[in-house]
Amino acid sequence: MLKCWSAEGSMKVYVSVDLPPDLAERLSKTVEIVGRDRIAEAEAALCFKITAEELRSMPRLKFIQVVTAGLDHLPWEAIPPHVVVAGNAGSNAVAVAEFAVAMALAAYKRVLHYNEKMKRGDYKRDVGIPLVAGSKAAVLGLGEIGTRVAEMLAALGARVYGFSRTRKEGPWTFTADLLEAMSGARIAVSALPLTKHTRGLVKYEHLAAMDPEGVFVNVGRAEVVEREAVEKILRERPGFVFASDVWWARNDFAKDADIISRPNVVATPWIAGGYGNEQVWRRMMEEAVDNLLRWVRGERPRNIAKREDYT
Amino acid sequence: MLKCWSAEGSMKVYVSVDLPPDLAERLSKTVEIVGRDRIAEAEAALCFKITAEELRSMPRLKFIQVVTAGLDHLPWEAIPPHVVVAGNAGSNAVAVAEFAVAMALAAYKRVLHYNEKMKRGDYKRDVGIPLVAGSKAAVLGLGEIGTRVAEMLAALGARVYGFSRTRKEGPWTFTADLLEAMSGARIAVSALPLTKHTRGLVKYEHLAAMDPEGVFVNVGRAEVVEREAVEKILRERPGFVFASDVWWARNDFAKDADIISRPNVVATPWIAGGYGNEQVWRRMMEEAVDNLLRWVRGERPRNIAKREDYT
């Protein structure tokens, strides 16, 4: 049971996530945590996701702190316009960025290809091993994850092109032109969030502009890439690799099995964000609580969503 | 056919490798290239490997330029003590270092594990994904390859320990104590050459001192690691991963199939050095020719082998 130090009349926060005890205590020093039974009193919510039904039960709601970085899964139409929504970008960015680079290298350096052959007792060398050093790499999205991916690839010697809506400087050539970023790229990593601007952004022409032996990695959201475009490029180019941690049917991976099972696909089940890693999990929870407390204290919270990106 | 500009009486070099025409021309401006038929006239040799029989056929031999970085495959007992031997370390170091990091990340971030499951339609998340950032990594051997591996792992945020016989500074904690380097390491990469000092250097106690979920990567020579130690640790620790591009039976991979086929082994067929990559191949040939020409001109060649490391 939680021990609540907060005085009568302190702000009520509806918490639907399983907070570690010390974080629950930290939060309880400033607010009163309420559960489903007293949801109606809540002025703020701390959650992974939230339903339209929960939203209707909180007439006093002013602020939603989401524990995940992505906010595309929220029922945006049900969130009243005066309610401020904050995400948690950056809290697991290191984990996701490392995973993106791991996927890119595993595919690009043909570790997966040769390991699979060796296990079958096929010891023949067939495909060559390209260099990262000096090769063009495109990073789509220059948020916390994309920035780290771009920095890592640059440290490995790649010529990095960074693509995003707004100019950001770093060890990359910036471009707001997706085709320019991807043309001739041997590695491309998408760390784009899913918004109404990014849905279906990556089309066949972009994938086809990459090196024919290139590797496209997605650690953002599947829907940023047109599914038909991926099917077409995989059919046409046996040397091209599509590596993804995110899938169009979300957690219902069987629905994407037609793509997952293709030989030139590398697939993982949405785990890049430090799945099963307590350190990463702990940091996500901590940063979400800290950001919520910023709002409670009247400071400006980080990662405030732009409603117009989703509705 | 090669066109030889060299005057009568110029130095003869026995070339047993298939040089690109322009490099053959470059070499021919200074020396006369001879083949097997005129081997007896050769004062120098350019080769991948050399036999005792070839050595006996070259009474005038003073210098051997090997195209590979490793020199452990030479018939050292048959090389007269006055013959200088130069290797080609560094020429494909970038390729090997990139491959080592790719193997390490593919295994450590469990990309291989989950991809294999996804292909079988097993979408269950089971093992957690550890972080590179903040984790201890050991790099064994701080030559051209090891140095680059250490720099890359440091750029990815790992706390790197660098092990070698002689102190070398870089973005690592230097140690000449192998057990200190490997204790608690989550990633260890061996880029050690095979010499009489390194043969069997990595024993069970070193592997057992690593994190139980650790990843040991070998891109140097298999014989640096005791085969029995690897068998034992793989049997005892299902979460430990042994990832290797090099095998005890060299190119006869079937003889190491008992280890290659284990689930916690990642195996590739000795390809890290840029297999099938013309750019890497070209650079190796170029650097070997340039180093040979240093000796011909009376300059000090690079990568002169220490005979006492092999005999």
From TrEMBL, chains A, B:
Keywords: NAD, Oxidoreductase. Pfam families: 2-Hacid_dh (PF00389), 2-Hacid_dh_C (PF02826). GO terms for cellular component: cytosol. Belongs to the D-isomer specific 2-hydroxyacid dehydrogenase family. CDD domains: 2-Hacid_dh_6. InterPro entries: D-isomer_2-hydroxyacid_DH, D-isomer_2_OHA_DH_cat_dom, D-isomer_DH_NAD-bd, NAD(P)-bd_dom_sf. Residues 38-304 form the D-isomer specific 2-hydroxyacid dehydrogenase catalytic domain. PANTHER family: 2-HYDROXYACID DEHYDROGENASE YGL185C-RELATED, 2-HYDROXYACID DEHYDROGENASE-RELATED. Residues 101-272 form the D-isomer specific 2-hydroxyacid dehydrogenase NAD-binding domain. This is D-isomer specific 2-hydroxyacid dehydrogenase, NAD-binding protein. It comes from Thermoproteus uzoniensis (strain 768-20). One of its GO terms (molecular function) is hydroxypyruvate reductase [NAD(P)H] activity.
